[in-house]
């Protein structure tokens, strides 16, 4: 018995052995561990993550080999990306800058210990490096469609993304970098957000030519900021303002399909590296047609007030003028968002001869049906008022 005790004591005093075992479990840990002198000159591996060792059957209790840092994971698209990664057995590091409750809803999506919240400061480089230290995949979902007193369009949509790319290159162990931009991002756009997104794409591909850029169209889903906003306004004021004459064309996409596209790009053997994908839904709507779909789902009689673009800009301009001149935060803009009004002056649809969902092996869902059924919560008679949309749509309507 004494011999066994002495042997156990000797084993516990061997730090080198435990360190080597840790390196065998996390072979990327030695590339960058938050030290003051990171490795220089590294770029992304051309093999992607396809060659990682995987264990298990592919479920949430398996090991996919992916350790992903998802910036912007607490946002709308973020929760779906985290869910897709977690259910395949990936470890997801979730940097957040709000309260401790911000990432709470994400922890249930993965197995025990697989979702790791990490408080960080986007303006602190060391904080970003710590969040990225043990990762081999970086996904940037940070973005904002309106300005605040503390963060401008350019800082949130451009400079933060460029900083992540620079740090990922210095890291040396990042195998994939995915930047989520916006469909319609262009240096010539009237929208400051879309111009900032275009600048971010250029900066990232210049720093990391192997990065993958996803450009989704307007996202539709349970927590979206378009149909929910419209339905709430229509229920409150009994009408819906249409910017212009409602003829602007858009190609909205189901948020789950975009998350699936991001994960599909990670699963390939590097074929999506260095490429740009435009992700739009299978149907093109005008703003008026999308509003009609919303009204049909909430069982309300359509009532519209067409607001000419110059008047819409005049209504939304005061917030932009006083945003940084008053000592208190101004309300978040909803329908009358000046930058979005600029964006809606031109059609936003997928271009010709570009990479799309098809190149990732994904068939996007049509909106009419389950993707918009969350709007039944706005029905006057309650969610059970009448039949649900999916009950009235034939299976042939689905892709």
UniProtKB/TrEMBL annotation:
SUPFAM superfamilies: NAD(P)-binding Rossmann-fold domains
Record-given protein name: NAD-dependent epimerase/dehydratase domain-containing protein
Source taxon at top rank: Eukaryota
Taxonomic lineage: Eukaryota, Viridiplantae, Streptophyta, Embryophyta, Tracheophyta
Pfam families (alphabetical): Epimerase
Residue intervals of the NAD-dependent epimerase/dehydratase domain: 69-280
Molecular function per GO: protein-containing complex binding
Species annotation: Rubroshorea leprosula
PANTHER family according to UniProt: NADH DEHYDROGENASE [UBIQUINONE] 1 ALPHA SUBCOMPLEX SUBUNIT 9, MITOCHONDRIAL, NADH-UBIQUINONE OXIDOREDUCTASE 39 KDA SUBUNIT-RELATED
